[in-house]
Structure formats: structure tokens, C-alpha cells
Design a protein that fits this description.
Largest sheet: 2 strands, antiparallel
Strand order of the largest sheet: 1-4
Number of strands: 4
Radius of gyration: 23 Å
Helix content: 55-70%
Distance between the termini: 24 Å
Number of helices: 11
Bound molecules: iron/sulfur cluster
Structural class: mainly alpha
Amino acid sequence: MKIVSVLKRNRLIFLVLVVYSILLFTSPDKAIQSWKNSTYYLIEMLQVLPVIFLLTVVIEALVPKEMITKGFGEKSGIKGNLFSLLLGSISAGPIYAAFPISKLMLKKGASITNIVIILSSWAVIKIPMLANEVKFLGIKFMGIRWVLTVISIFTMGYFMALFVKKRDLPKPEMESKERILTIKQEYCIGCGVCVKLLPEYYEIRDNKAFVKQDPKEKSQIAVIVKMADKCPTKAIVVGQSE
Ligand code: SF4
């Protein structure tokens, strides 16, 4: 049961390992090359991500929510769009480094449009990238591409905000020290019993149960404790567990 659960949770990694194994028998050269590429990117990620996480901690602790809301929020207008373009363009590091920062900025009040602008400019019009482009393809090529790309990025940002709302994004989990209700993810088998019994407190995402909200009144806790007992794997913990 536990092995199946581990496999389910890490299915992408296992799928990649299976593909590598097949490749090793059918085309060893490609397998070795793929392994080298993966190792290269893994090492790169291990070098970049600690710095990014440190940066997110600094932003979380030192940048007030009002500042992000004012500079990059729904009401920041064209000024916010231009700030976002600038932020994405002067950033350094690979695009995956932008995701934790974007998540934090969304949490602190940035708009979907501005996050799309930051991510897109980070990915395709970073200043070092433009300098290289001039070197190899000339300034006219770079300039026209930059203008067309910026128009596309802004259009994409506004369209994304029409279709994707903040409520569609994954909800951040509550800090464990704040929780009354916790689900031990390693035990949850996603059977859905808890959701059926108390849909106001639990939800299923990616075959796992998550807490939607903590009970607001003490009187509700008794019901929750009783229902938690019906979880077949005893994954639900009521009370601060960690
Ligand atoms: S009842 Fe338990 S095992 Fe089933 S989904 Fe809920 S928490 Fe997971």
C-alpha cells in the first residue's frame, strides 16, 4: 500500500526512469546523452534554487503587502505593467526560478496580468539575452522582435486575466503551527470518505485530501473528531500535530 502511494505521488519521476531504462536498451547513446542533460539541469537547479528560496524569504519578510499591491496589483494600471516588464527583463537566472517569486507576489497582491508579464519577459526578453541577440542577429532583428514580443506579452497578460482568476490557482496550505486540522499526506489514499462526510472541511486534489478550512467553533471539533475516525488510514489529525 505504501509503495503504491509513493509511486503515485512520484509518478512523473518513475515515468522518466522507465523511459530512461527503455532508452538504455534501445539506444544507449541517447540514454547516456539524456542522462548527462538531466544531470546538468539538476546541478543547475541545485545551485539556483537555494538563492531563489532565500530571495523569496527576504521578500516575504521585508517587502510589505501594500507595496506589492500598489506596484503590481489590479489597480496598478499601465505603470504596474511597465514595472513588471522591467522586473522580468532585468532578472537573472532560468525561468523556473521565477515561479516561486511569482507565487509569492500573487499571494502579496500582484495581479494575474502582471505576473504573466513578469514571467513572459523573464523567459524571452531578458537584457543579457537581448545583448546576445544583437551580437548574432543584429540590432534591427532584436528591436523588431522586442517590440512584437512586448505587444504579445501585454495582450497575453490581459487575456490570461480574463480566463484565469486567483481562485483557480492552488491554494496555499496553512502553516502547520496554525492548523487544528491536518491530513498526513503520506497516509492519505484519496478514498474521499472525509469529503463525503464533511465536504465543508475537506477537498480532494490530485487524489489526495486537503483541509479546506479549520473549524471555527469548538462545538464543531467533536463532530470532526468523530468523523476523522472513519478515515481508513487514520490520516486525519485533529489538534496541532507538528
Ligand atoms: S478519508 Fe482519509 S484516506 Fe480517505 S481521502 Fe480522506 S484523509 Fe485521505
